[in-house]
Amino acid sequence: MAIAEIANSRILIVGGSSGMGLALARRTLAIGAEVIIVGRNEDKLKRTGAELQSAALSTVAADITQEGQVADLFERVGRLDHIVSTAADIEGAYELLPSLDLRAAQKVVESKFYGPLLLAKYGVPVLSPAGSITFTSGIAAYRPAARGSVVAAVNAGLEGLVRALAVEVAPIRVNAVSPGWVDTPIWTFVAGDKKDETLSAMAKRLPVGRVGQPEDIADAISFLMGNAFTTGTILHVEGGHRLV
């Protein structure tokens, strides 16, 4: 499927009201797609709608960790061409084991594994056979660090799910993008008031000399949606992080 065909498609983006998801929504709206942004916070969704100001945009409040809400979501939105999820609830999860709260760990699993699983379960019946599902993994699965054990494990599990779903729901394509360090609001939960200092130090390490921007990941997701010969694939967009 070429970019021209994406322009005429209906795309559902979970987590599209900030960061990478918002960048993807802006990009796909600009080329003529119809976009449905899904999030839990209605006020945030309203602000996103006001910011993007597009007649081709709609928003739906839903929690993808709740099966009933996911089932209702797909009954409401109808036919789709692509489903994308960039959602992740990692608040409180970046802790050393003695300080790790189990509920914070469970929220990561719910948002980054069970949520995508439910999106596939209820989304596949409304997807075009030529359509796709794209999830978001991350560099932690390959370069884990202290305090990141939960996120590393969930990212790795999600990538296994991608490969299995690509076989089970074919010809619908299922892929994941694996970002490196990207300057998004999620870093507030990871580094707190040391966000800028932490990202700057990583930029000096990376072969590309900078950390990622949301637009870098939106570009990668667009490729995965548009390339009809790519499925079961993890696309690494991390500035060479796995090499250093």
UniProtKB/TrEMBL annotation:
The keyword S-adenosyl-L-methionine does not apply. Coiled coil: none annotated. GO terms for molecular function: oxidoreductase activity. Keywords: Oxidoreductase. The keyword Oxidoreductase applies. SUPFAM superfamilies: NAD(P)-binding Rossmann-fold domains. Belongs to the short-chain dehydrogenases/reductases (SDR) family. This is NAD(P)-dependent dehydrogenase, short-chain alcohol dehydrogenase family. The lineage of its organism: Bacteria, Pseudomonadati, Pseudomonadota, Alphaproteobacteria, Hyphomicrobiales.
